[in-house]
Amino acid sequence: MDIESLCIIGGTGFVGRSIAEQACARGLRVRVVTRSAPRARPLLVLPTLETVVADPNDEESLGRCLENMDAAVNLAGILHERRGATFESVHAELPRKIARACGVAGVRRVLHMSALGAAADGPSAYLRSKAKGEAALREAGAALSFTIFRPSVIFGEHDRFLNLFARLVRIFPVIPLGGARARFKPIWVEDVARCFVAALGDARTSGQTYELCGARACTLEETVRLVAAIAGRKPRIVALPDSLAALQAFVFEHLPGKLLTRDNLRSMSVDNVCRGPFPAVFGFEPSPMESVAAEYLAGAGVRARYQQFRNYAGR
Ligand SMILES: NC(=O)c1ccc[n+]([C@@H]2O[C@H](COP(=O)([O-])OP(=O)(O)OC[C@H]3O[C@@H](n4cnc5c(N)ncnc54)[C@H](OP(=O)(O)O)[C@@H]3O)[C@@H](O)[C@H]2O)c1
User: Fold this and answer.
1) Which residues does residue 174 pair with via DSSP β-bridges, in sequence order?
2) What is the structure's pLDDT at 257?
3) What is the spatial distance between Cα 235 and Cα 228, in angstroms, rounded to a whole number?
4) 115 with 134: CB under 8 angstroms?
5) Do the domain assignments include residue 171?
6) Ligand 1 in reach of 75 Cβ (< 6 A)
7) Which of 67, 97, 229, 243 has the fewest beta carbons closer than 10 A?
8) Per the domain annotation, does 302 fall within a domain?
9) pLDDT class for 303, splitting at 50, 70, 90?
10) Average of per-residue pLDDT values in the chain
11) Beta carbon of 61 within 6 Å of any ligand 1 atom
């Protein structure tokens, strides 16, 4: 497969930024579709990247964004439902629209971001909707050459996972933790991006679904302890029983920012750990979280303060 250009839907986010950077570093032409020009601003430094402000949920606009592209990458996703953006609309209907629009625009190669644990009978609406998105691509059949990725939780410099806990352990001496025993195998965002970019032109990955996990499994509680150790703090972590965890999630989902919802908690009720080894087709082993996280979390406190100044200054 000869891929020289790709259109990324959901490319302004945490994962999209890494994929765009790695694709541009390989000299690929990247078009990022966004509903919001300011969100795409940090990407504009990339030399072979253009942004298009359009709503990908509108099939006509989406079709125009896909014109003259060799591949489409769908990263659009949400963790919490909002008015106008439900799991069904973002994770199930949008992939269906992308599959159809690719067919019309003649874009055969499609990489699709799902999530580890996606299943029609999954415990959460999030995981069930991710399964529907995967089904939408498979139903497109031979018309598309698709590859589906199912990562465990993803960490990296701009994540909302380890950075959130780093902020919490710096502020609070006691952390009441719902889902403390939930197991993950976190993967570095640069490793995820490496798989996407490698898969683009690799015919062996066509029609395949890959689970992507990091080097080591850990519980949420162990993860928070690791973050605390990196931050040089020793908070007391209180693992909440299920009933209190549900109450905590209920409260959080009604607060601005929705730190955690009951649906997130239901996703965490099953292990988020890959069944097999890291896919050999990508030719590398995933990076350990301990060393990567230590590098970016150590300076996170200082950077967060600078970011506050930047936000204040509108930059
Ligand atoms: N982060 C993780 O730990 C993790 C783990 C497993 C799977 N995933 C999956 O990986 C993908 C990327 O995650 P991320 O962490 O990079 O997310 P993110 O930072 O929140 O970015 C989400 C992207 O989705 C787009 N989007 C959001 N709502 C949309 C809507 N209603 N219609 C169209 N586009 C919409 C946004 O585009 P705009 O520019 O238009 O706002 C944004 O670029 C998601 O599908 C997520 O489910 C993430």
Assistant:
1) 236
2) 83
3) 7
4) no
5) no
6) yes
7) 243
8) no
9) low
10) 94
11) no
